[in-house]
Amino acid sequence: MSDVFTEGLCSTLLADVGARVMRAAVKPLRAGWLLRGRALTVSVPAGDNLAIHAALAMAQPGDVLVVDAQGYADRAVMGGIMCAQAAAAGIAGVVVDGAMRDAAELREGALPVFAAALSPAGPYKAGGGSVGRSIQCGGVTVNPGDWILGDDDGLVVFGPAESDGLIAAALAKGKAEALRMAAIARGELRPAWLDDALARATLDIGPAR
Fold it and tell me: Which residues hold substrate (predicted)?
């Protein structure tokens, strides 16, 4: 699988140029993780994980398991055993819009795990749901094979057809931000765009002190 991600890409740059942004509740269990790969999509009924087991059995190295667990917070759909299996299969990371468990164990591991909640309660295995279909996860549409990037700031999603344009725009924005940081280091504390923006805006600014 070719990797579209290059050094310097992060969730904030991709979000700023149009990548889909998952809701803030879906966040990493540990700071410092970087998750990136292509989505293996799963949808499960609230509190059930049979479809996730089916997905793990067919996952390919580099996949990111992206699970619409209906945002259900009171029963975990994955934990330490399933994440150990995912890591052994070469899965690049796990994203669950719902609950996980075994948080301390997962934080000690190398597999990046993003989730909306934690619960000690275990899952049902009654079935239902889907694997490899378009889903809603974290408030956005995720299609099979979409690119996923997650870091300390959150998760972004974009399709293969968008990747070239989004990545080029994100890298260009990164260069512009680096130039601004260099200007700040030189003591240039007033950004060039500020005066025009203030002239167009309606702001109530008190007298200077």
Answer: 79-82, 101
The pLDDT of residue 1: 39
The reply, when asked if residue 150 is annotated as ligand binding, is no
Q: Has 139 been labeled as part of a binding site?
A: no
**Residue 30 class from Cβ within 10 Å (0-12 exposed, 13-18 middle, 19+ buried)?**
middle
Q: What is the mean pLDDT of the chain?
A: 96
- Does 63 show up as a binding residue in the annotation? no
What's residue 209's pLDDT? 78
Under DSSP, is residue 58 helix (H, G, I), strand (E, B) or coil? Answer: helix
Checking if the pLDDT of 161 tops 90, the result is yes
97 is in an annotated binding site: no
Q: Is 71 annotated as a binding residue?
A: no
pTM: 0.93
Distance between CA atoms of residues 198 and 207, nearest Å: 15
Q: Is 107 annotated as a binding residue?
A: no
Cα-flanking dihedrals φ and ψ of residue 150, to 5°?
-135, 140
Q: Which domains does the chain have, with CATH numbers?
A: 11-164 (3.50.30.40)
Enumerate helices (H) and strands (E) in the chain, giving the number of each.
Answer: 6, 12
